[in-house]
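The instructor's notes for this session suggest beginning with a concrete chain rather than abstract definitions. Hand out the sequence below and ask the class to guess, before any prediction is shown, which regions might be ordered.
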Amino acid sequence: MLEAVTRLGQPGDWLVIRGYHATDNLVSTLTHAPFSHAAVLDPEQRQVIEAEGSGLHTTSTADFVKKAQRLMLVRAQWATTPERQQAAVVKARSLVGRPYDFAGLVGANAKDRYYCSELAVAVFGAHVSRSRDHIPLVIPPDQLHYWGTVVWDSGAILVR
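After discussion, reveal the predicted structure:
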């Protein structure tokens, strides 16, 4: 998975995973979905920017991929130029330290807090129109591919 992300990933791409952790099981159960988490890729720094219970932070791409049973690399529909892609990474980094949006687990939105998939969409905020693009306030991680292109999918969940 790491080789594919390193080879194909571009700034601002979304890494959508089904993780091994108990909270991944909770998210998958609450959302009735096979994927449980999303992050924004910064390939130049070999990091992702993610929103978890501890808040928004960076994680090495290698460590993030280790948390995944399954991984989809998704390029947002708004990532149409290198400038937009780089701006998405800059925006994601500017949000590091913000609190996690626990309400996102049930589809609600809390101001100035971010659920993982809220972060993924928010970094393209200047180019997103919720009404034109028909985007709900909170998108479950497994639905991010509707607002992008799946560049790579690891396939079925691996047994550990």
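Then share the key points. The chain has six helices and six strands. The mean pLDDT is 90.
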